C-alpha cells in the first residue's frame, strides 16, 4: 500500500467495480490504410483492445485499435517491442502539412482500460484488484462510478502482487499524484468530505464517497 503506514485506510464495505486506465507512449514507425506499426517499451497482449492517439494534420486523432502482433526486438542496445495494431476506422493523415514524406519519429499515446475493483482508499493512495499484473512506476487513472457521478484520480503504481489461489487476480497498491482535478470529482476529495462529515469511520459504503 502506498503512503506511510500511519495513514488511515478506509475499506469499502463492498468493493466497487471500476477501471484503471493506463497510458503509454509509442513511436510510430509507419501506417497502412488499416494498420499502425509502432515501437513501445513494454509488451501488449495480442487481442487487447485499446485507444491510440496519433498526430494528424492540424490536430490529433483518437483511434480504437486491437493488438494484432507483438514481438520483442533489439533496439539501440536494449529490448523494445514492435506492435502491429489493427484499426477499426481509417487512418488519419499523419503526413506533414507541406505534403512531404511520412515522418518516422511521430509519437503516439496508447491507453488501455483494465477492469478493476476499489478495495480501500486513504488520503494518499488506494488499493485495487485487477486481472493483470501492473509494473511499479506505471502512471494511470483510476475511475469509479458512483450513482451517476464519476470519481477519478491520477495514480502511480507502487506495487503489484498476485493473489495466491485466485488465478490471474492481482492486488495493486497505488499512490495518488499531487495534481488534483479542478472539478473536484476525485476519490481523495470525496474521502475528505466523508471524514469531515462522519468522523474517522474505517468502513465506507461506496455511495458515502459522493461529495
Q: Helical element count?
A: 1
Largest sheet: 11 strands, mixed
CA(first)-CA(last) distance: 24 Å
Give start-end ranges of low-pLDDT stretches. 1-5, 96-102
Radius of gyration: 20 Å
> Beta fraction of the residues?
over 45%
CATH H-level homologous superfamily name of the largest domain = predicted glycosyltransferase like domains
Tally of separate domains: 2
CATH topology of the largest domain: Thrombin, subunit H
Task: Give the fraction of residues assigned to helices.
Answer: under 10%
Calculate the mean pLDDT score and round it.
Answer: 80
User: Which outline best applies?
Assistant: globular
- Structural class by sheet pairing and helices: mainly beta
Number of strands: 11
Q: Would you list the SSEs in sequence order as H and E?
A: EEEEEEEEEEHE
Quick tags:
211 residues, Thrombin, subunit H, mainly beta
